[in-house]
Design goal:
alpha+beta, seven-stranded mixed beta sheet, globular
Length: about 350
């Protein structure tokens, strides 16, 4: 299997607990995720945990499985690691469970697993346990992945409920690229551009902010629901108002064009490597300088402030000197986005 996966397909026997399943696990998953804890082949991983710990889980069902800038494997690792990072936690251990549809290309599965291994290398976390299930053709949409993550909290008290009037709101890069890239792949759009998903592991950036002792009040990756969802959740949890300058929100021309074409708002589109943070106003520019040193964060920007008035509301100031509420997204803009 490992020698020449091309043109081979997953069979029900690959999930049957016998020779075929053993070969799949050893030759692919163990080979790519190799570490002593995983290789012990126990029913549960034995972990050493010290101090406050963050724990998260997520399931990934993106369609299509491959898109500009990533695939479902990269998405699964980045998504779980980022959830830990947003709590100020150093990613340590991950689990990985896959549900594979009968007939799924073994070559594609190999590509996805190798993509996961590559993304893991950006944060130092290890996959220490997992599970493989194969379902009959038609019972799944190719491949589903569930990953859980555990991390050691290095910066406590980061919370959606900790925003304080006077805080600055910073976004790490231009928004909406993941949603736009998925839309392009789904619709078969061909544009004269290099638009890719922002899918990426955020721990290296967060680690530098923590090392610089930046007092982070709140931090969250803007996935489903995009920037709008994050800001509204924060305003409600902290019982504060948030005022955002629309002209300050970085949006690339390709995303703007797709939004105009389909009637979307860039602030509602999903991201997979973009995060938002709230910090005291006096250190906002220092935090911004740290972020802008990293690839993907060159367009990081201060986009707004936290206010004492209009509690629970997000107000968007437009370039035309008008204001409107930036509400939570309604409906499902793009299903199967992550």
């Amino acid at each position: 299997m490992a020698d020449n996966p091309k043109d081979k397909a997953i069979q029900l026997s690959h999930g049957g607990g016998g020779k075929e399943m053993n070969a799949l696990i050893r030759n692919l998953f163990f080979a790519e995720f190799d570490n002593p804890i995983l290789r012990s082949e126990e029913d549960a991983a034995k972990l050493e945990l010290h101090g406050a710990t963050a724990f998260t889980t997520d399931s990934f069902t993106v369609s299509p499985l491959f898109f500009a800038g990533g695939d479902i494997g990269k998405l699964a690792i980045a998504g779980t690691v980022n959830d830990l990072a947003m709590m100020g936690a150093e990613p340590q251990y991950l689990s990985c469970s896959v549900i594979i549809e009968e007939g799924f290309s073994l070559q594609d599965l190999t590509t996805i697993v190798r993509s996961m291994a590559k993304e893991l290398s950006h944060c130092g976390a290890r996959i220490v346990c997992g599970d493989t299930k194969v379902v009959p053709k038609g019972c799944a949409d190719g491949l589903f992945i569930n990953t859980s993550g555990i991390g050691r909290i290095l910066r406590p008290n980061i919370s959606a409920a900790n925003l304080t009037p006077g805080d600055a709101i910073i976004v790490s890069r231009d928004i909406g690229c993941h949603g736009a890239a998925i839309l392009m792949a789904r619709e078969g759009l061909v544009l004269e551009s290099n638009l890719q998903s922002d899918c990426a592991t955020l721990w290296p950036i967060v680690e530098q902010l923590i090392a610089a002792n930046i007092p982070i009040h709140a931090m969250r990756d803007a996935t489903r629901g995009g920037l709008s969802a994050v800001l509204n959740e924060w305003a409600g949890a902290s019982k504060v108002g948030i005022t955002v300058n629309e002209a300050s929100i970085p949006v690339c021309d390709e995303v703007k064009g797709l939004c105009e074409l389909y009637g979307f708002e860039a602030t509602d589109l999903a991201n997979e490597g973009t995060f938002v943070l709230a910090v005291p106003e006096e250190i906002a520019h220092g935090a911004l300088e740290i972020m802008q040193r990293f690839g993907g964060c060159q367009h990081a920007a201060i986009i707004g402030t936290v206010t004492a008035g209009a509690a629970g509301k997000v107000i968007l100031k437009t370039p035309w000197q008008t204001q409107r509420y930036l509400d939570l997204p309604q409906g499902e803009l793009l299903p199967r986005i992550c």
